[in-house]
Amino acid sequence: MDCFNARMLMQLSGPALRDLPRSERGPLDEHLSSCSDCAVFAHNDRLVDEALGRAMRNVPIPAGLENRLRSSLKSRYRRAGLWTWVSAAACLFLAVGMATWWWNRSPQDIRFEQFVSVIDSQTAAQPDDVEQWFQDEAGIAMTAPRQFNYKNLESYGVVFFQGQQVPRLVFFVGNEGGRPAALAHVYVLSWDQFHPPPFHDNRVPTSTHTIETSVDENGKVTYLVVYTGSSLDPFLRRIGT
C-alpha cells in the first residue's frame, strides 16, 4: 500500500479507523509501521479530532436557555392546538420511518473510484477552486484562507461544528529539515453563524495541539485552526509565492 491509498483510507474511515473493513486494516497497519509521515498523519488526525471534541463539549450553555426553550415550546403548543401538533408529529414520524427503511433496506457499495477521484481533485487545489466546490456541491458561499500554502492541502469538506455545518480544510506537512510532520484543520466560521472572537488573533496552546483563530473582515469569517507542531509557519505561504 502506498501513501496515497493509505491516506485515502484514513480519510474515508475517520480518525479512529472504526469504519475500515478488516481486509483493509492489515495492509494499512503494515504501511503505518513503515512510513513515519503517514503514521504521524494518522496520529495527529486523532489528536485534532479528540481536541476539537473536548473543546466543543466544554462550550458552556447560556444561562436560562433551557427555560426560554421550554417557554417558547409551550407558547407554540398553545397557539397551534393539540391536533395540529399530533398530526405534524405523525407525518414526521412516518416520513422519517419511510426514509430510514428505504436507506437501510440494503447495504451500499463503497465507490472507491469515485472517492479517489474526489481526493485527486482536492489535493493541492487552489483557493478559488475550493470556494467554487463549496458553492456548487454544498451551497455554501465561503472565503478560503489565502495565507495558507495550498500545495499542502490534503482535503476539504463540510463538517458539523457546534451543531452547524461549516467548511473545513485539512493541510499536512511532512518531515523536513528535522522538523516533524504536522497537521492543521481549518474551520471557516461565517459571522452569520458565529460571533467573531473578541480579539483578532487568539492562540491557545495545550499539551498536544494549538487552537488559533484569525479573522477576515472583508469576508466576514473567522478561521479557527487546530494544528500540531510548534507554529503555523510550515503551513503558510512564503512571501512572494
Task: State the main characteristics.
single chain; 241 residues; alpha+beta; 2 domains; 6-stranded antiparallel beta sheet; 7 helices; globular
Protein model, in words:
There is one protein chain. With 241 residues, this protein is α+β, with helices and mostly antiparallel strands. It folds into 2 domains: 3-59 and 110-235, no CATH class; 65-104. Helices cover 45% and strands 19% of the residues. Helix 2 (22-34) crosses helix 3 (36-57). The chain is globular.
Relative strand content: 15-25%
Structural class: alpha+beta
- How many domain regions? 2
DSSP strand tally: 6
Computed over alpha carbons, the radius of gyration is 21 Å
Helix content: 40-55%
SSE order: HHHHHHHEEEEEE
Q: What is the tally of helical segments?
A: 7
The overall average pLDDT, rounded, is 78
The main β sheet shows up as: 6 strands, antiparallel
Major sheet: arrangement of strands: 1-2-3-6-5-4
How far apart are the termini?
Answer: 33 Å
The parts where pLDDT drops under 50 for at least 5 residues are none
The backbone outline, from C-alpha atoms, is globular
